[in-house]
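ARCHIVE CARD
Drawer: 12
Card no.: 0347
Subject: one protein chain, sequence and derived structure
Cross-reference: see card 0346
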Amino acid sequence: MLKRLQMGLRAFMLLASKVWSCFCYMFKKQYRALAQYQSVKYEMYPLSPVSRHRLSLVKRKMLVLDLDETLIHSHHDAMLRPTVKPGTPPDFVLKVTIDKHPVRFFVHKRPHVDYFLDTVSQWYELVVFTASMEIYGAAVADKLDNGRGILRRRFYRQHCTAENGSYTKNLSSICDDLNRVFILDNSPGAYRDFPDNAIPIKSWFSDPLDVALLNLLPLLDALRFTHDVRSVLSRNLHLHRLW
C-alpha cells in the first residue's frame, strides 16, 4: 500500500512538473511578445536657460551609425544556418542583385530602433557607415529612414579600409573635426584607429527584449553639450575590450 502511494505521488509530482514547465514556457512566450511591442518613451524635458546657452556654445555633432548587428540583423535565403529562430517574421525583405544573382535579405530591426532614430536625430546629424556593399546598405538605410530624411549621408564598403580580412572606418573622412564626431558600432575593429570617438554596443541578432539602444539615450542626450566628445568617450576604453 505504501509503495503504491509513493508511486502515485511520484507520478503526480512528475505531471505537476510538466504542467508547471508548460505554464512557464507559455508565460515567457507571451511576455516576450508583449515586451517587444510595448510603447516606450524617453522623457525630453524643455531645456533650462543655462542648458540652452551651453548648447549654443558648441557645434552640432555627428553620430555615425553602423547597420548590421548594431541597428539591424539580416540573413539571406542562401544561408544554411539562419541566426534567428525559424518562423520569426522579418520586419522587411530586400530583393537585391549581387554579381548578377538575385538575393533576398530578411531584415530584423533591433528593438526600439525607430524610436531611437527619431530621438537622436533631434540632437545630432546622423551618418550611416557600414562595411556592407552599397546595393544592400543603401536599401537598408532607405527602409530605416522611411522618408524622414534623417539618414541622408551614407558611407559603404568602398569607403572602408581593408585590413587583414576586416574593414576599418576612417572617421576623419566624414568630419575633419574629431571633437564632434563619434561612432556607434558593435565591432571594435571597425574603429580601431578612433577608440576615443566610439561607443561600443553589444551585437544584436534576435533577442526581442534587447534594450541597448534605449539605455544609450541618457548618454547621448548629455554628450551633445560637450566641446569634445573624446573627453567623455575616452573613459569607455575598457568596454571596447569587453565587447
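Annotation on reverse: The two ends are 61 Å apart (CA to CA). The longest helix spans residues 2-37.
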